[in-house]
Structure formats: C-alpha cells, structure tokens
Design a protein that fits this description.
- This protein has one domain (13-137).
- The chain contains eight helices and two strands; from the N terminus they run E-E-H-H-H-H-H-H-H-H.
- The protein has helices at residues 20-31, 37-40, 48-56, 60-69, 74-85, 90-102, 110-119, 130-137; strands at 13-14, 17-18.
- A two-stranded antiparallel ribbon has the order 1-2.
- A hairpin with a 2-residue loop joins strand 1 and strand 2 (17-18).
C-alpha cells in the first residue's frame, strides 16, 4: 500500500485510545472517495475496526453514521462513543491500547503478520507488530520515531 494523505498511524491517540482516530480517518476518507478501495474497503468495519467498536460497545455502522453526519471532532466522537457504550476506566484503556499496539508480537496474530510482511516485500524491516506493519506499509517508520510512546 502507499501513503494515504489524511490517514494517520494506528499509534496516534485520541484521548486514551490508540487506533480510534485511524478508524475515523478511514470512514471519512472512504466516504469522500479518497481511500484506495482495493487496499482498504474489504476490511472496513472488520479487524481492528471491529475490535475498537467492540471495546467501545458501539456498532461500527452506528459510529460510521455519526461520523458522516459531521459536526463533531475526534475527541467529541470518542465522548459520544462513551455516552452510547459506557465510559471505560483509565486501566481498561491502557490494557486495550497495550494489546492493540502489541498485536502480532508473540500471539496468534503472528502468522498473519508474517504473511503480510512477505506480501508487501517488507522483509528486513524492524516490524514486530501489526501497527508497525501498517506504518511501514504506508511509508512511515514507527521504530525511528518510537511511535508507541505517548
């Protein structure tokens, strides 16, 4: 995949959560016709999107509809999710974000990660997690900037 203008790193946080902002970017970019369909469309609302929505206890389609209505920034959308699905403690957010940032490292996601690295010809890059893979695949280097540090 290539760099998609306006699509942020999964490491970027909105409030206490990683990935949430990236999901919002994908929703907005897809609606505007700026998200490469071949690379992203099949996974919208699935994978990490589904995990994020499940954690927030909101449906992806419901969140998508609210995002596309407009009028709320990312922080306000996260607050809207907490209103709909219930607030999460700092500890829950820390655990969830930690899990997401480490997905593919010493867990059952490793097989998928290794396959994606091969498919994208990224062998030799210091990719330890799915977040690392997404960043390298989109032209960012999360290791040199220590993207996982808040």
């Amino acid at each position: 995949m290539s760099n998609v203008p306006g699509l942020r790193s999964p490491y970027n946080r909105v409030g206490r959560l990683v990935y949430f902002g990236r999901m919002l970017d994908k929703i907005r970019l897809h609606a505007a016709g700026h998200l490469p369909v071949a690379d992203y469309a099949a996974n919208l609302g699935q994978g990490f999107d589904a995990r994020c929505c499940s954690f927030l206890r909101v449906g992806y389609d419901e969140l998508k509809a609210r995002v596309l209505v407009g009028g709320l920034d990312d922080t306000q959308l996260l607050a809207w999710c907490h209103e709909r699905g219930g607030d999460r403690t700092d500890e829950e957010c820390e655990v969830w974000s930690g899990f997401m940032m480490k997905r593919g490292w010493r867990d059952d996601g490793r097989v998928i990660l290794e396959r994606r690295i091969q498919e994208s010809a990224l062998q030799g890059k210091p990719i330890a997690t799915m977040f690392d893979y997404l960043d390298f695949d989109e032209g960012r280097d999360p290791v040199s900037v220590l993207a996982w540090e808040p």
